[in-house]
Amino acid sequence: MVKRNTRQKRIIMDAVCSLDHPSATAVYERVQAIDPKISRSTVFRVLSDEAAAGKLLRLHINGTDDRFDPTLTSHCHIRCRVCGKVEDIMTDIATDMSSDIEGSHGYSVEYCDVVFYGICPDCKDKTNSVQTA
Fold first, then answer.
1. Are strands 86-89 and 115-118 parallel, antiparallel or unpaired?
2. Long-range CB contacts for residues 68-72, cutoff 8 Å, separation at least 24
3. 88, 49, 54, 21 alpha-carbon torsion, rounded to 10°
4. Which residue ranges does the chain devote to CATH 1.10.10.10?
5. pLDDT digits (tens, 9 = 90+) for 100-122
6. Global confidence as pTM
7. Distance separating the N- and C-terminal Cα atoms of the chain
8. Exposure check for the chain: N or C terminus, fewer CB within 10 A?
């Protein structure tokens, strides 16, 4: 069954692309500002459907709600343990690791999800400001 590209779906996908690794709730809040008639269940269903169809990455990151990422090329993520911000890290590490695993263990890697945890520059600056005051 072919899914239609409805106005609601376009608004939802535009919201995902305009936010940085948003949760479904953050997408819903953005969508509500554009069209309050779009329900929470519609937003959550579209995000799930698009992730299942391979049009979005659904990120399961410890300590946070699932996040959604429109960048489908191989990459890693980093999450700030203070503010929860999630960012892309464009690196070949995931590709290199997948190749190593395929070569040494014989698996055919279909997907790799690498998440680094640390403190973002903004939170690090705030921490340093508090310590020096």
1. unpaired
2. 68/16, 68/21, 68/22, 68/23, 68/24, 68/27, 69/21, 70/13, 70/16, 70/17
3. 0
4. 1-71
5. 888 888 888 877 788 999 999 99
6. 0.81
7. 62
8. N
Task: Report the chain's C-alpha Rg in angstroms.
Answer: 18
Percent of the chain residues topping a pLDDT of 90? 62
**Numbered ranges of CATH 3.30.1490.190 in the chain:** 73-133
| pLDDT tens-digit series, residues 34-65 | 999 999 999 999 999 999 999 999 999 888 89
1-71 under CATH 1.10.10.10, yes or no? yes
Taking the C-alpha atoms of residue 75 and residue 86, their distance in angstroms, rounded to an integer, is: 13
